[in-house]
Specification:
mainly alpha, 198 residues, 2 domains, 8 helices, 3-stranded antiparallel β-sheet
Length: 198
Amino acid sequence: MARYCDHYVERGTFFSTYKYCNITGEEKEVNQDYYCNYCSNYNNVGSCPLYSKAYGSVSSCFITTVVCDVLNKEDDDEVMNALREFRSNVMRKDEKYYDMLKEYDVIGPLLALSIAIDTNSKKISTVIYEDILTPISKLIKDEQYEIAIEKYYLMTLMLINYYGLKRTYNNIKDNHYYYEDFNPTTAGHGKKKKYQLD
């Protein structure tokens, strides 16, 4: 018999059931995919973004969440490879991009969590992938790096505002992204462990 996560809660009636997670101290509604991947599968609880956030582990970056977890795309498709190569071969080799790499390491997991539990995650992820990430990857291939960076940054700010993370984001910036020792060769994965939340 399947064992549910201890933080899973159902609300509603016989005709209409809503799924929630209470791990943060307040109930957050989760979508069907999130429920199937984590709430109803106790073996996967350790990799649940909500569980990871509450117990100090690391969530994945939000672009990987959008592409792989929500849209079920391959991690090594043309778009992802272009973004990855840009991070490794351009951003990590130029100091003017270092703050963006730091920022992504800290805000990326928070956006990943927000997207993963959004009841409209597939619709939002499709827009992000098709209307933003795909054009950005084409700009990168054409070596229009500054325009690509600007579009990426605007996308990030849009998601921060959409998910009500502006205060958290400002706190992160004010505290120098919670970095102690910055290593550009490993930055930009969305896996920075040491951050705080309001």
